[in-house]
Structure formats: structure tokens, C-alpha cells
């Protein structure tokens, strides 16, 4: 597939065939075009319209199993708690629950979603730097496995609440190991200047305090150093080595530690960048925390849910640059930054594949792929090698299953997109598209404005 890019780039984007080859749940068919498992995307678009999120149940299962196999293979006693914030779809949660995954939640809504999907409280961890009293109360009511405390203040609040309810909260102390995960500044969480966790130097005294407070049972330590970590295992190893030292200090002080929560953050290759494997992560955990002989918990979000999802969109029009930018081509889609915000927010690269068989083999030239929202930031890709696409042509944004739908908004009064799950030859709408009535129906006019007719 020859690229018509005018400049020889040192690091050319991967071609369509390369992108496909790395994503086994996708295939291109001469007649049906781009297909998820056994369902052509053209059929989904005809049924559900666009923009629509499409999730492969098979890919979700494969990834859940691959991660568990890697942990087993390293000889670790491990439990996996899927980070619900990456993708909150009930259908996605249900598939992962059936694979035996627990949940890591960061809000009342996520806790409710995990429970609604059938994940037992005993497999749920509650993380987050600002849990409200109402959220803590719900966590106690659901008797969840563990609440990860992020400050001394939160510990006091939870202790008072649990004691007043006559309950005991199992808590882990989230520590900030002050390591640089070398990921995007907006998603690094393990530096001392970040808001997350408590400084590792303060951890022994605070852990002792947890053991002394009524209503709390400290069960372990936790960390989470950032997201989309692709820089290798150095940051993980550094963080876990510090955690291991901390656990030894706690033990020496006679404080019990039952397990270690290793957090999430494992990155995925959006483009063709090298990304660490689950085996590498399991090896790093084994090497650093293994000697403690404790069970470990993992909280992966993106690694599980990212690759199995895509965003299906239609071309609204193809616009040629004017006199000041001749040769520039804009592909304007019906999806926008309100749907998939990652390119605007993190300068993220997503693979974009045409769906129709003829578009897949047509000559390529650079295009800026944009949405209709009134922001220059509403740009998905610049200078991307794509064929000429007519209005109505379909395209798929790859690896959009994590932090895609979950981060979408209704900016520009755009209804939330539909969500579809594919499982083999079956598919179903798992979240119907929001309607304009849904959107308008949320507003109320105060009496004094209703009476004053315009
Ligand atoms: C976001 C988050 C995760 C998941 O991060 P991924 O990069 O999606 O794996 C895990 N644990 C905590 C505490 C988080 O905030």
C-alpha cells in the first residue's frame, strides 16, 4: 500500500495492513469491508447509525485471560480489579465479570455500575483522592474488599463513619513513590507533586495510625504511578521496590500487611510504539515484590478495554483547503472531540481505517481529520495518509475502548453516541444513542422566566 505522502518521513505511520495485523479481532473482507469478529461495521452503521462505539467481547475476554495467564506464569498469587473508569459499559463489565475480574472504582456511579454488572462487593476496590462521605458510606454498606486511603484526613473521616455504623473498613494506604512514569503530564500520578497518595516517608506513621483508629483494618499498601506507561519497566520496578521496602519496615514495626495493590497503567501500542507486555509487568512484580510472599492486586483499565473498542464514524464532507492553504484536505466527520477527546486532550494518536473495501485500497494522500465542533482542538489527526472519502463513507478509530465513551460529553449539544457490543456473529446495541429529547429534557425553566414570554 504505497503512501502518497509528499515527504519521506523518518518515522512513517503504520499502514492499514500493519494496523489490522496487530488487532486480531479486526479483519478486512473483499465484500463486507472492515469487520469486527464476524460482524461487518457497515451492518452496525446501518443498524445503529454513527458515531457509534463498537466493542469486541472476544477481544475483551482474550485480554483478560492473557493478563491472568501472565500473572499465573510468573507464579504470582494475583487478583485483577478492572479499572471501571476506562469503560463503564454494563455489557463490558459483564464480560469482564464473567472472566472473574473484580473492579477498581473511583465514584459512587462506578461502584453501582460494578455491582449492577454482578461484580461482588468482595471483589471491589475503591480508589480516589476525594471520596465523599456518601461514597464511603455506600462502600461500607456494600462491604467492599478494600478502600484505598489517600490521606490522613480521609482516614479520620472513614474511621469516624465506620465506627458510628459499627463496621470495620478494610483499608489500604495509597503511597506516592515519587517515580516518573514518563507518560503524558496529564496522566502521570506517581510524582511527589501529584495530588495522589501519601508520601512514602509518611507512610509508616500513618499506617500505624490506621491500625490504632477504630473502625479501620489496614490490610495493605497500594500505588498507581500513571497511565499509558510504555517506557518499559523501570518506573514500575522503582515504585514496587520502594513499596517492598515500605512493607518490610511495616512488618518490622509489627504492623500486618496482607497484600499489595500494584495499581494499573500498563500502556498499549496506539501507533506502533513498543509497549510492555503483561509478562514484563508480571516479571517486574515478581522481581520486586515476590520475596515478600504476599498476594498482589492489579488495577488495569486501558490495557484491558482499549484495543477491543473502536469508534465508528461517517464522513460528513471532504473539504479542500482554500487559496491560503492549497493542497490541504480536511475530512470532516460526524464524530468530534466531545465523543473521543484523547487527541485534543493528550495529543493522542489513534489509527484510522476506512471501512469500505474500495476505500481500503484506494490511493492515499494526507488529510486533516476533524470533527464539526467549534474548536480548533477538534482535530483527530493531521496529515494522515487516507484515501479520498465521499460523504457517508465510514471510518473506524482504533483502540478507542478505553477513555473513549467514558470521557465523552455533550459539548455543542451533541447527544452521546450509541454503543454496540459484538460477540462472534452477534451484535447488540448496549447503550442506545442519546436523543435530542433526552438532552433538552434535562433543562427546567424557573417560573419567572416561563411567564416572561419572549
Ligand atoms: C485510572 C486508574 C487505574 C487504571 O489506569 P490504566 O492506565 O487505565 O490502567 C488504576 N488504578 C487507579 C487508582 C486509577 O486511578
What does this structure look like?
Keywords: Amino-acid biosynthesis, Decarboxylase, Lyase, Lysine biosynthesis, Pyridoxal phosphate. Residues 307-401 form the Orn/DAP/Arg decarboxylase 2 C-terminal domain. The protein is α/β, with parallel strands linked by helices and 454 residues long. It has 2 domains: 16-55 and 308-441, Lyase, Ornithine Decarboxylase, Chain A, domain 1 (Beta Barrel); 57-305, Alanine racemase (TIM Barrel, Alpha-Beta Barrel). The protein is 30% helix and 23% strand. Strands 4, 14, 15, 16, 17, 18, 19, 20 and 21 form a 9-stranded mixed sheet that branches. An 8-stranded parallel beta barrel has the order 5-6-7-8-9-11-12-13, surrounded by 5 helices. Strands 1-2-3 form a 3-stranded antiparallel sheet. Helix 3 packs parallel to helix 10. It starts with 15 loop residues before the first helix and ends with a helix. The chain binds pyridoxal-5'-phosphate. Residues 83, 85-86, 104, 106, 127, 224, 227, 263-266, 299-303, 402 line the site of pyridoxal-5'-phosphate.
